[in-house]
Fold this sequence. Notes:
Elements: E1 5-8, H1 11-24, H2 47-59, E2 63-68, H3 78-86, E3 90-91, E4 94-95, E5 100-105, E6 118-120, E7 126-128, H4 137-140, E8 151-153, E9 158-159, E10 168-171, H5 172-177, H6 179-191
Parallel strand pairs: 1-2, 2-5, 5-10
Antiparallel strand pairs: 3-4, 6-7, 8-9
Amino acid sequence: MARKTFISYKYSEARELRDSIIESMGKDATYYTGETSDSPDMTDRTTDYIREKLKDMIYSTSVTIVVISPNMIKSQWIDWEIEYSLKQVKRGDFSSGTNGIVGVVKKYNGDYTWLRPRNNKFDGCSTLGTNEKYMYDILNKNRFNQEPKVYACENCKCVDMLVGSYISLINEEDFLNDPNFYIENAYEKSKHSKGYILSKKR
């Protein structure tokens, strides 16, 4: 089932990936509410104006896709968009739900090791690490936050990449190959958010 989505990204380095994500969604992109290549330029608008427009875009969505790129944390908007996506916002008689959130890791210099180095455990298991310096605190705090934790491997205490964190990180190639699968995974976690310790503030 199609979900209303919003993409949070740093324009200067991720707009092409934004376009690829929208294209990969096919007919489900009808339910996408964020910026596109045809959106009006708001760089000369006031901060308050931009914030209100972003609120309107995010309010009715159920899943936020965050493009994780090397200079993402230099954006003045992405962490705010994530925070707003996680809030339950009341408008009149209606309240928005807490969005599911999925991080799409941008390929950089040919691979993903800039953010996701592979670690070899003492027991022979191989797991993906996360270089947290490239991500906002609100992203890091919503990783590995399943409660109670369910370990995919009891020996090395690693968790399943899709359910062990409220915000899963997916390589761009995997996401573009089957966006609906990962969007639906994020949505399902939002419907069972009591199974996670959520951090909703930046």
